[in-house]
Design brief:
By secondary structure, the protein is mainly alpha-helical. The chain has helices spanning 2-22, 48-65, 71-84, and strands spanning 24-25, 31-32. A two-stranded antiparallel sheet has the order 1-2. A hairpin with a 5-residue loop joins β1 and β2 (31-32).
Length: 86
């Protein structure tokens, strides 16, 4: 039993040392937090009326293009048209 306990302690120590090596410290020995990566997606909040318009545009675009497009592509096209002044 003591051998197993020693193995667990050594494994934990090894994990701790690896984590410490990966961490970055400043001149005063304080750990520097790594910046969080930017999210790959954004959230868009729509009212019920806005969502109904997007869905109507989505159905019309599917009929016009003859291909299956996502709702996100529909919103993107609506925003592009609005920004261009169309």
């Amino acid at each position: 039993m003591p051998k197993m306990r020693a193995f667990i302690c050594m494994t934990t120590l090894a994990q701790y040392l690896k984590a410490k090596q990966r961490a970055t410290y400043d001149a005063y020995g304080q750990r520097i937090a790594k910046p969080k990566p930017e999210p790959t997606h954004k959230t868009l909040v729509l009212t019920i009326e806005q969502w109904e318009i997007v869905m109507l545009a989505h159905e019309r675009m599917k009929e016009m293009d003859g291909q299956d497009i996502t709702r996100g592509q529909t919103v993107e096209r609506c925003c592009a048209d609005w920004l261009s002044g169309a």
